[in-house]
Amino acid sequence: MVKPIVWAVLLVFVTSTHLYAEDVYECNCVECHRELPTSLQRMFMRYLLVYGGEKNLKAGLKHYLKYPLREISVMSELFLDNYAIKKKTTLTNEEIDEALDIYWEKFKVIGRLK
Questions:
Q1: What is the Cα–Cα distance from 10 to 111, expressed in whole angstroms?
Q2: Global pTM value
Q3: Could you tell me which of 59, 73, 67, 72 has the C-alpha nearest to residue 87?
Q4: What are phi and psi of 3, to 5 degrees?
Q5: Distance separating alpha carbons of residues 64 and 83, to the nearest angstrom
Q6: Are 58 and 100 in contact (CB under 8 A)?
Q7: pLDDT number for residue 17
């Protein structure tokens, strides 16, 4: 029979391995957006239409994450009425940059069109 302390150690190991296996994008962005009706990919396309390219998209999103305001959101009024403005991020600048880099690489269309 396995002793309770072994189970506790095993549980901590499995949990911590899972947490470290996911990146900042998966842990923070995907986790929160999972409950929304609009996918992160569709939001990306909206951001791309508004911001026009990688540099502007990343700068615009970073600013919005740090200073979320209804006036600068690219989401529709209906979406904002139903889901509100996000809370200010608790991520560091480096974590935001990492998440935005992953987001860009995941959904960019440049180099993927044939």
A1: 43
A2: 0.75
A3: 67
A4: -75, 150
A5: 16
A6: yes
A7: 39
CA-to-CA distance for 84 and 80, rounded, in angstroms? 4
In contact, 60 and 51? CB cutoff 8 Å = yes
Interatomic CA distance for residues 29 and 83, integer angstroms: 15
**CA distances (Å), 97 to each of 13, 56, 63, 83, in order?**
28, 13, 11, 25
The crossing angle, in degrees rounded to 10, of helices 93-107 and 40-51 is 100
Does residue 12 register a pLDDT over 50?
Answer: yes
pLDDT for position 110 = 74
Residues 73-102 have pLDDT tens digits of: 999 999 999 999 989 999 999 999 999 999
Q: Report how far residue 51's alpha carbon sits from residue 64's, in angstroms, rounded to the nearest whole number.
A: 12
Amino acid at 27: C
Closest to 23 measured CA to CA, from 91, 95, 104, 105: 95
